[in-house]
From TrEMBL:
Family to which the UniProt record says this protein belongs: Belongs to the thiolase-like superfamily. Chalcone/stilbene synthases family.
Gene Ontology biological process terms, A to Z: fatty acid biosynthetic process
The organism's place on the tree of life at top rank: Eukaryota
Pfam family, one: FAE1_CUT1_RppA
InterPro entries linked to this entry: 3-ktacl-CoA_syn (IPR012392), ACP_syn_III_C (IPR013747), FAE1_typ3_polyketide_synth (IPR013601), Thiolase-like (IPR016039)
The Beta-ketoacyl-[acyl-carrier-protein] synthase III C-terminal domain, residue ranges: 285-366
Active site positions, chain numbering: 151, 200, 287, 291, 320, 324
SUPFAM superfamilies named in the record: Thiolase-like
Keywords per UniProt: Acyltransferase, Transferase
Enzyme Commission no: 2.3.1.-
Domain FAE: 8-170, 172-265
Name the UniProt record assigns to this protein: 3-ketoacyl-CoA synthase
GO cellular component: membrane
Amino acid sequence: MLFKIVDQRRHQCCYLLDYQCFKPSDDRKISTEFSGDIIKRNKNLGLNEYKFLLKAIVSSGIGEQTYGPRNVFYGREECPTLDDGISEMDEFFNDSIEKLLARSAISPSEIDVLVVNISMLAVVPSLAARIINRYKLREDIKTYNLTGMGCSASLISINAVQNIFKSNKNLSGGCAMLLTNKVALKHKAMFKLKCLVRTHHGARDEAYDCCLQKEDEQGRVGFHLGKTLPKAATKALVDNLKEISPKILPVRELLRFAVASFLRKMYQNSAKGGGRPVINFKAGVDHFCLHTGGKAVIDGIGMSLNLSERDLEPARMTLHRFGNTSASSLWYVLGYMEAKKRFKKGDKMFMISFGAGFKCNSCLWEVMRDLGDPNVWEDCIDSYPPENLANPFMEKYGWIQNEDLSTFTIPE
């Protein structure tokens, strides 16, 4: 019985064998000039909308090297078809999965679990079935097709695989990530999952309503971001950190924070009271992999965790180079740190992401070996971080700030 217990615990570990990020071709890059063309050909915009978009783009932290889907280049962004969505997924799956399997030397027949997540596209047969057909995976493979989970879907997918590993020995599962609980493959693993915490505030109306896909008065589908979003995100982050902190931080740091919090509460009404104590996540974490939801998101997490500019650099550079790629953004941030050769064996890396619902998910990985393999950053990593992250939108389109609503006409 003792042997069975020990053996079962050995196979409940979750290792990341490899991962692969997708990099489109250079003809898909969205330059400042092309972005302006896209905005100008939208006949539903007026002066106020132009000013708002300019302000949003300038402060977004996104550079000119990011990419767009093919239908945008064909001028069909207002009426994308189902085929557009499917072809975009095929392009990603065929490139990333092919490279992932080749680099890891794993045969498709060895994969036992397949978890696919996609923000909004729902097709029949499912995307999971499409991958099974493409790579001729086994008939007894366990499949999970997740949709609508938004930017936090990666950690939800990992959690699903982690739970499957708890009841099944010697399994592998993969998409852009290849995970396993096979002890025999431990020496090949890049990371070992130490713990994962998911926080969901969907029962609260202010959290559920703050980020919704909906139609406007004219029937156009888009995303509504409510004024309660910052509050909902902060609450989800705080609750998530409260749960995961005891799992990843040393006892001495937890005791220090507890004593500091007690003393502040004790003297909060006196002159002896200081500022709010901040828990030091660096006491148990070496690297921070943050969701690139936007410049404000990165700044907010950095302030909450008291992180340095070096800690925030991978997320900022990923936002500048690749933009907000939703659930996959964490892996581009991870790729940046690997390309910079920051990971050493034994290091701890903290991942955190947000998603509509409202959700906040986080996890801690342990680095299993020194890392520095080539990835999507290979051709540009030496030029990052650039001296200036400012994009040229204000320089090119700043004149619109001086336009008058009564005399403004859409430029040709």
